[in-house]
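Notebook, student rotation project (T.W.).
Task set for the rotation: take a protein with a known small-molecule partner, predict the structure of the complex, and write up what can be learned from the model alone. Partner molecule chosen: 2-acetamido-2-deoxy-beta-D-glucopyranose. Sequence and SMILES entered below by T.W., checked by me.
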Amino acid sequence: MPTVILNQRIIRPLLLFGFALSFVIFYLYVAYRPPIALYADLFEAETKESKALLHNEIGNKYVKFKQLQGAGFNNQAQEIMLYHHLALQTSRIYVYQPLIWRPRGEDATVPLSAFMRGLTEGAISESVFDEVCPPDEVQHVNLRIEDTDQWKHAIEILSRKHRCIVVDDKVFTWNFLSSSGIHAIWPGFQGYIRHHFKWSDNVLAIVNRTETTLNLRPQSAPDSAPGAPYIALHLRRGDFEDHCKFLAATHEGFTTWATLPLLQPAVLPPALDTYNATTVLAHCFPALRRVLGAISAHARARPHLRALHVLHDGAWDHPGVFLAFYKLAEALTNAPWAEAEGWTGGPMTSVTQSADVPVKRGEYDFAVCVDVELAARAEVFVGNGYSSLSTQVVALRLGRGGKVDDITLY
Ligand SMILES: *[C@@H]1O[C@H](CO)[C@@H](O)[C@H](O)[C@H]1NC(C)=O
Ligand SMILES: *[C@@H]1O[C@H](CO)[C@@H](O)[C@H](O)[C@H]1NC(C)=O
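Predicted structure of the complex:
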């Protein structure tokens, strides 16, 4: 019966392999499963709070915008914050919508209050919008003009007296977000961040846990507080290799706040020339040597700063990012290398990364916010002017009174 024996020899390891594989898949499924019950509770609480607000605030005006669907978290967050700011500037109640959780598909919605608490306070959920603004009482408007005066124009239209406005077009197009048109928004937006930006408690709890576990001390904490002061580096790789070639070919510049004149001293040479692809690629997808140079300059100037936390987008489909991280970590912790670079305080003593953030089951959705906040709290931030995550970090830092000297855009 040789065939049977042969089959058993093959089948048994196959079965074992199959079991092991299904276990791994099941484990990943459970670990990465979103907190469904929490989200359901928050959606319900959002509706309840919105209804309470409607009953208390007679005579208010409302605005609902056409928002991005399914872009990355920071693209959505950035746009939502700009819309919220625009609503507040024109004394309207912002009608908020859920975030679209792209990794789980175009229809996967998550409650905004699970991530950013400041946006849902004093605002109403779209789930109750029809109650306060029935369709026949809604004024539909378009706000977009292809002009740097976009913001002023939007303010003018929304300052009109209609009680309920629904905006049918997108105001913050990619073009506008990388144009000088957004510079006029900055002074007010800085105040917006200071007064209205707030993470959810879910996010803040993980940030706290991470600071303890990874021994990181926020810049705002006193020197006597536990943990080491640190540099945060945002390494944007993943899909950027191809994306940057596209941006170079289409002559795109930095995004949003990275274009602010006040930030230009933070931009590592060469100066960005969108008609010189070499400079676009140097900023968008830099060689690791260039990234090391940016960190080295800060480490040389600040001998007490010997911890580095690296935010990156490494994942099973972008394993090269981990390789880049390990190469950086190896150089930065190497004493002869640090000495050759002229660091008097010795090499880095701690290099941690996004993958070290202690997220528990059901917390994976919050990891991106934790990354942003850790970078916003670092003593120094080194990031990418083409990335909305980096520009979000820059906005939070400057909005909270941070200095341009503590930022480098490589
Ligand atoms: C995080 O830590 C700070 C300082 O220790 C504390 O004041 C705050 O309440 C903590 N926040 C959360 C959400 O645990
Ligand atoms: C493009 O920029 C690089 C780096 O600054 C520079 O060396 C090169 O001469 C520039 N090329 C052109 C065509 O200007």
